[in-house]
Each structure stands twice: as C-alpha cells, then as structure tokens.
Amino acid sequence: MTVRPALSSAAEELAPVSDTPRLDAELLMAHALGIERQALLLDPARYAVPADFSALVARRMRHEPVAYILGYRDFWTIRLKVGPGVLIPRPDSETLIEAAVQHFGAAGPRHILDLGTGPGTLLFAALSEWPAARGLGVDASDAALAYAGENTAALGLADRVELVKGNWAEPVKGRFDLILCNPPYIADDEELMADVADHEPAGALFAGADGLGDYRRIIPDLPRILAPGGLAVLEIGHRQRISVSELAEAAGFAVACRQDLGGRDRALLLTRA
Q1: What is the rounded average pLDDT for all residues in the chain?
Q2: Of 3, 90, 97, which is closest to residue 44 (Cα–Cα)?
Q3: What is the CATH number of domain 76-272?
Q4: pTM passes above 0.90
C-alpha cells in the first residue's frame, strides 16, 4: 500500500478514538518516515509506507497520546520533548504567551517565573520571545523537571534558565516581572477522555472537589514575588473566571481576562490594584 491510501485507512481506523484522526495519521506516518509532516503532505507519492507505521497506529488505538508516541509537542515557536509523567502542552495555553507579549511588547520582562513549569512549556516559549530575559521554572515533579532539563539543553537556554524542585512558590526568592502558571484546575470527579485520564499525570490535572485547590495556594503568595509593575498570568478552566477572579481580587490584584482561539475564557491577567 502506498502512503496516500495508508493515511486514509489509518484515519478511518482512528476515527472512533480521536477527534483529529487524519492529523494523527499524518503525524504518525511522518514520524515513522523520519520526516516533518509538511514534507509528507508536499509529496506523499515519494514515500513508501514504513514497516512500523501500523504499530504506531495500534498504540494510538489504545488511546496513547500522539505527543507521547512522537516524543515531542510543538508549542508557540518551539518544540518540546515530552513523554509519560509530564503534562502535554495544549494550544489553548498559548493564550498566556499572547497576553504577555501584548502586555510587555518588544522590550519584554527581564525576569520570568513559571510555576508548575512541566517540560518548560510557558517559560521556554516566553524566553523565545525575549532573548535578554532570564527565567526560573519550578515544579514538584522529578519527571517534569527531567524533561525541562532536556529541553533547556536542546533549546540552547542553559545559561538563561534555572530549574528548581518545589511546591509552587515556596522555594522562590526575589521578584519577577512576569509570572506564568498553568496549574491543575479540573475537579476530582470530572470525567476526562481516555487519552488524558489513562496517560497524563493526575497531579498535573486535578485540583480538589471544585478544581480551585491550587489557586488557593498560589494566588495569596503572588504579591510577595511579583515585581512592581509586573504581570502574573494564570491559565483557568473556561468556567472558572468568576471564582478565580474573586481569589485574585481578595489578594489585592486587578484582574483582566483573555479568551483562547475558541472564544473561551482561558487566561487571567493579574496586576497590582
């Protein structure tokens, strides 16, 4: 079978387990071929179907996330190594970077903090925008910090990044012009797709009975570490704008909200009131 019908067949097979079966098939085929998806789409007739393509499709049929199969996820302008034990970067989280870029412009912040950095998602995306900035990434997960360390090296950021193990801002000293944070915000009883529930780390997803447990820990500590004139940007679930805004206002912040590409509330911007 040539590549084109193989892609169609795989997409049909993946349809029951994926919202993007054709995209999944194309990414897996490109990975099996050792090329970028764009090259595959440009001239699919050039390639023969590799022997291990069917095995990759079988892994996806078992709900393994495509990013784990590929070993990476593209986010903003960078490519991040990811795998089991680390939260996969989502396109919706780019809303936080967009908001920060709009706020700071080309001058940018000098010191950036990413609380719950995971594989370095928000921190490294921000550092890619502002070459003069330096950053600190904090995470409680050894697995996440290991991926962040690998991505630091791969992106050439070793001289601009410090990674620290800790619970939110507890180990943080000093103040930062930009604080980014994508905490867990899913209620404990909420059902998730098998791709997420069976593979991604629960500690990066769930946050108590109402999904607000980590915001209650993070927000009261932000005044201590946010520099004068600084900005904190928090990702939220699309139904959490009011509840998280109330927590931020109680801590003395003025709050604005930005929507993701789907028009859903996604990022809260906190500045000193």
Answers
A1: 97
A2: 3
A3: 3.40.50.150
A4: yes
